[in-house]
């Protein structure tokens, strides 16, 4: 008889029938909608809720965790935010605010029974903004916080994109991109073509496009442009002035975060890694993880560094070694 593995034992759980998937009802000013979550594993001490980027992307960008977290005994929960592919996608822009998304995360937390004895919140890119904002509002519920590949000041992010990363493109390419941005010619297929070739493969995921993992190509295929453009703009080359996140800045509030926090940056990131290292120093219990070969999706292009650093943080906090 084989020994039962408690980590993968879903017997007696309501979500055994669905393989860990839960459609969680969310109350909003526009009514009730459902968001998709999927629990992997059982660990009553380490439960990681994953906040994807975008806004409007999907949980799929984290799927490489399947190759590592089960071996480490880490419970993790995939989650598509409202408006994202696997969740309900209400029309209109009224619900796409930071405050409403924070309230959504809190409703998800309560439904899943996460609490300060086990609740780790991990957000990447826009998910990092959401994770920070959740911590400012509800850090009493957290055991630990992970902010992956996100700066605490959008103006600084834009400055880094335009003054540091932009000039790394061939001059004629940058000039053409900037001209299209000046003319708001974002629907021009040339705009995406140039950025994918000269910016995304250098600073979003450092692989030729044809070698990008299927999980990432699906993430981009499933991106909700209505949410993404409204809050971010048309691309990862900075946040445009008309986007609602354009003025977001929490740098002056970082010292209010009391829970153990890991910030993650990549040497080739769309975000300034020095800023993310600085963020860790501003927090009361901060640690910085640098991915020397990584870009914005360091979990893929510097996977060993990224995964080992995240696992170490989770276990250090759980064992009181932080």
Itemize the secondary structure elements and their pairings:
Elements: E1 21-28, E2 31-40, E3 47-51, H1 69-72, E4 75-80, H2 98-112, E5 119-124, H3 126-138, E6 144-148, H4 154-165, H5 171-182, H6 189-203, H7 214-221, H8 225-231, E7 261-266, H9 273-282, E8 286-291, H10 298-301, H11 303-318
Give a verbal description of the structure.
It comes from Rhodohalobacter barkolensis. Belongs to the peptidase S33 family. The active site is at 125 (nucleophile), 269, 296 (proton donor). One of its GO terms (biological process) is proteolysis. The structure is a single chain. By secondary structure, the chain is an alpha/beta fold. It has a single domain (1-322), classed as Rossmann fold, CATH 3.40.50.1820. It has eleven helices and eight strands. It has helices at 69-72, 98-112, 126-138, 154-165, 171-182, 189-203, 214-221, 225-231, 273-282, 298-301, 303-318; strands at 21-28, 31-40, 47-51, 75-80, 119-124, 144-148, 261-266, 286-291. Strands 1-2-4-3-5-6-7-8 form an eight-stranded mixed sheet, sandwiched between helices. A hairpin with a 2-residue loop joins strand 1 and strand 2 (31-40).
């Amino acid at each position: 008889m084989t020994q039962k593995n408690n980590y993968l034992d879903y017997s007696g759980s309501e979500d055994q029938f669905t393989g860990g998937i839960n459609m969680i009802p969310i109350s909003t000013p526009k009514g009730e909608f459902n968001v998709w979550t999927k629990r992997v594993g059982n660990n009553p001490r380490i439960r990681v809720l994953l906040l994807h980027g975008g806004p409007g992307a999907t949980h799929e960008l984290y799927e490489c965790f399947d190759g590592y977290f089960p071996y480490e005994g880490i419970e993790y929960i995939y989650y598509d935010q409202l408006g994202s592919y696997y969740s309900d996608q209400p029309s209109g822009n009224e619900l796409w605010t930071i405050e409403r998304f924070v309230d959504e995360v809190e409703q998800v937390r309560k439904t899943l029974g996460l609490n300060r004895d086990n609740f780790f919140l991990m957000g990447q890119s826009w998910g990092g903004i959401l994770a920070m904002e959740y911590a400012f509002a509800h850090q009493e519920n957290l055991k630990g916080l992970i902010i992956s590949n996100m700066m605490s000041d959008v103006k600084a992010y834009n400055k880094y994109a335009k003054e540091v990363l932009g000039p790394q493109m061939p001059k004629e390419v940058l000039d053409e991109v900037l001209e299209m941005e000046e003319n708001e010619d974002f629907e021009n297929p040339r705009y995406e073509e140039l950025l994918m070739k000269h910016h995304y493969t250098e600073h979003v995921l450092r692989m030729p496009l044809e070698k990008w993992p299927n999980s990432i190509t699906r993430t981009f295929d499933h991106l909700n442009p209505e949410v993404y453009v409204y809050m971010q703009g048309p691309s990862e080359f900075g946040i445009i002035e008309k986007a609602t996140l354009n003025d977001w800045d929490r740098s002056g509030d970082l010292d209010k975060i009391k829970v153990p926090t890991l910030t993650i940056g990549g040497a080739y990131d769309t975000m300034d890694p020095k800023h993310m290292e600085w963020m860790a120093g501003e927090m009361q219990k901060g640690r910085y993880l640098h991915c020397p070969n990584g870009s914005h999706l360091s979990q893929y292009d510097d996977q060993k560094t990224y995964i080992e650093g995240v696992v170490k943080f989770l276990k250090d906090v759980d064992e009181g070694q932080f």
